[in-house]
Design goal:
This protein has ten helices and ten strands. By secondary structure, it is an alpha+beta fold. It folds into three domains: 143 residues, no CATH class; 72 residues, no CATH class; 39 residues. The strands form two sheets. Strands 1, 2, 3, 6, 7, 8, 9 and 10 form an eight-stranded mixed sheet that branches. A two-stranded antiparallel ribbon has the order 4-5. Helix 2 packs parallel to helix 4. The longest helix is centred in the C-terminal third of the chain and has 37 residues. The mean pLDDT is 90.
Amino acid sequence: MPQGWFTPAYSERRYQCQVPIDLTFQTKNQLAWEMILELHQANTLPARWITMDEAFGRDSKLLEQIERATDYYYLAEVPMDTQVWLQAPQTQIPQYQGVGRPPTRLRLSDDAVEALAIEQVAAQLAAEAWQVHALKEGAKGLLIAEIALVRVVAVRDALPGPSLWLLLRRSPSTPQEIHYFLSNAPMQMAANTLIEVCAMRWPIEIMFEQAKQFVGLNEYETRTWGGWHHHMTLVILAFGFLARCQLELKPDSPLLTVPQVVDLLKAVLPKPDFDPKAALDLLRYKQSRIARAKLSHYLMQKRRFIDPLLVTQ
């Protein structure tokens, strides 16, 4: 919910939309961490990996929270200017100079090596560091990429943080376009596992597109907090049903897709008989809903804009 909605100017709109009175503004990253923590504490959904795009991966605080408070492994896409060390630099507590309080916080040693941007790390890699891998089977065949893996040390508050995997991915056809990922997976993690997880965001994106196309994920016309959540709940249940059908039928039809499941359902589900009265009743119902929505919108505009104008005149 936009931050502006939590200002006094929006108090009436929050009330009309039935927004919970105790709701406070949270950024997307804060909401993400809250959901991750709830999932971890509930322990109801077996999960090992969290994948994320740059919008979340650039948030070192979010990554640190996952590292400290959960046992999940993350694979986070990060910007090319993200700083890392190839080896942990030397640190020290500065020598007391006899003035003020003695220093207690670690600092980088004077001769510590500087951190590098991960694009600099990529530029230093030898040609043989890049290996060709088939990430997964796509609609048009295998998805091929060149992968390089490097063990690095994260930068946390200008000091060395945990040891991480840096995964670099590029297309053989456009090697200058590199995607960068950091992972807190342990050093002994198999390279094939990291590469497999790297490809998992693609089917998740496809899932969102299919949910929009087949079950109306983005086709909501609601004005209330409860109405939006009601719509989303039904969408998730409906798409879950399609995915379950696909899973159940996979042994007999390995190439079955969610769109094909929709085609099957359209073919086998009974179709209603033509009923002119039912068609007209449906039309009248939808037109009455539109009329009520227009009236509600007009009354809201009247209270907010027209009535105050009449009072001042």
